[in-house]
Amino acid sequence: MRMPTFVDPERRMKAKTRDLHDNALAAIAGGSGAERAVDEVDPAAWAEVVAVNLVGTFHAARAVLPQMKARGGGAIVTTCGGGSWFPVVGAHATAYAAAKAGVIALSECLMAEHPRRALTVSAVCPGFIETPIMENARLTAVDREKALAEVK
């Protein structure tokens, strides 16, 4: 099984966040894929989705925390997606949903780890949003209408 590789993500994130403006980070990692049932998915594809969505958010937060601590606080906003709270009807989005649920836990733990600092962490969890990604999800017309009806 081929696992995703990272080319020194710590160094890359620190370089990208060297000049932190307004003491804020918006960690908007997003990536889908591995759209197969758990018993059919390629484990490397599944791990890649988790790496982009969860591990990427971890590295972004880790890169800015030292600066935020030195400045006395800051704000981190993560995005989690509707799939983190409920299954996407008709789509095999297990890797995405698991990763985004992990981002929620990561966000909550970041707040718990820094209770006496002026650090706020918010996890934004939008519901179903009609985007090209959702159009490309393997939804049948019936599944699509059912999904849309559930959020109206």
Features:
single chain, 152 residues, alpha/beta, 5 helices, 12% strand
Summary, kept brief:
By secondary structure, this protein is of the alpha/beta class. The protein is built from 5 helices and 3 strands.
Any overview of this molecule?
By secondary structure, the chain is of the alpha/beta class. The chain has 5 helices and 3 strands. The protein has a 3-stranded parallel β-sheet with strand order 1-2-3, with helices on one face. The chain is elongated. Residues 1-7 have low confidence and may be disordered.
- Count of helical segments? 5
Helix content: 40-55%
Give the N-terminus to C-terminus distance in angstroms: 41 Å
| Main sheet overview | 3 strands, parallel
Radius of gyration: 17 Å
Q: Could you outline the blueprint of secondary structure elements for this entry?
A:
Blueprint: H1 9-16, E1 24-27, H2 43-70, E2 73-79, H3 94-113, E3 118-124, H4 132-136, H5 141-151
Parallel strand pairs: 1-2, 2-3
Helix pairs in contact: 1-2, 2-3
